[in-house]
Specification:
Elements: H1 4-26, H2 38-48, H3 52-70, H4 76-93, H5 99-125, H6 130-168, H7 176-181
Helix pairs in contact: 1-2, 1-3, 1-6, 2-3, 2-4, 2-6, 3-4, 4-5, 5-6
Amino acid sequence: MLTNQTQSRWGRLLALLTIIVAAAVARLIPHPPNFTPIGAMALFGGACLADRRLAFILPLGALFLSDLFLGLHVLIPVVYGSFALNVVLGRWLRLRRTIVNTAAVTVLGSVQFFLVTNFACWLLWYPQNVEGLVACYVAALPFFQNTLLGDAVFATALFGTLLLAERVFPALRESPSVSLAA
């Protein structure tokens, strides 16, 4: 027989998994370049999943599964590393979740993704000089706009969905002892 606390933990995990899978599926819907839920999904997983391992495995696993449908590419290690950094940002957010902190970490996640992935693009496809670096980042600016907008929209949707679910079903709320232990 499961205790109420155990049932609540499993219910919360199922709710979080459902939200993450829904975000991964949303990535498969046609969208403007870089307007995806992945950065927000990584932040969300880091901030909301109590188990550190699951915080990395679920969002990055969902990313990998969606990549199997969309295609793999040479920048996969860099992209996954960048999204792992978003999970780390989410872990920082875990005990500091306010609207302001969530917005700031969302923007920070978008900026680090832009800087990291485009630096890798420069190393692979641009002349290895200052002009090549500048050209690479300038060429990526339209994508950065979509990344910022996508991360903001999807972070609002993911965190907002969880907040609404917790209000409608209070048993989904994380117990304070779990929050402090994570």
